[in-house]
Design goal:
The protein has helices spanning 18-40, 44-71, 82-111, 115-143. By secondary structure, it is mainly alpha-helical. Helix 1 runs antiparallel to helix 2 (44-71), helix 1 (18-40) packs antiparallel against helix 4 and helix 3 (82-111) packs antiparallel against helix 4.
């Protein structure tokens, strides 16, 4: 919510970023699914690699998203399915706030070798993170015709 109030003075809008950060969200979703497949096939190192790249993609997305919103005015959705759009957007935003600590805690637990605790939190973190990654792309696709 603060992003809609904070503007960097004398900075050109970074309007080129949404078409870049949306596919990064899509790549995160692909990496998450790949990581799940890897761990289900007992390929722990491959799983670990996919997860590290997914975290990096999410971090890259977050930096670009914040930069865009700190330099650009909000884009108003004017489509006929605005209730659907805003429902997806609001749930996406709320889950994106929740997922950050879940991912960090699950990563630390895995890093420390506490795989049982890691598995317990991942049961919540994984579907939330996947939802955020997928709905990020959906939100972009729905709002992109209205970018000025």
């Amino acid at each position: 919510a603060l992003l809609f109030k904070v503007r960097l003075p004398n900075v050109e809008p970074l309007s080129f970023l949404p078409p870049i950060y949306a596919p990064v969200n899509g790549l995160t979703a692909v990496l998450l699914i790949s990581a799940l497949i890897a761990i289900k096939n007992n390929k722990r190192k491959l799983h670990e690699g996919f997860m590290k790249i997914a975290i990096a993609c999410s971090l890259l997305f977050l930096v670009m998203y914040v930069a865009y919103h700190m330099t650009s005015d909000p884009t108003e959705y004017k489509g006929t399915v605005s209730i659907l759009y805003y429902s997806i957007l609001i749930s996406h935003i709320l889950f994106s706030i929740v997922v950050i600590p879940l991912v960090l805690i699950s990563y630390v637990r895995a890093y420390l070798g506490d795989y049982e605790s890691h598995k317990k939190i991942v049961k919540f973190a994984y579907p939330v993170w996947l939802y955020v990654a997928v709905t990020g792309v959906v939100v972009f696709l729905m709002i992109s015709p209205y970018y000025v």
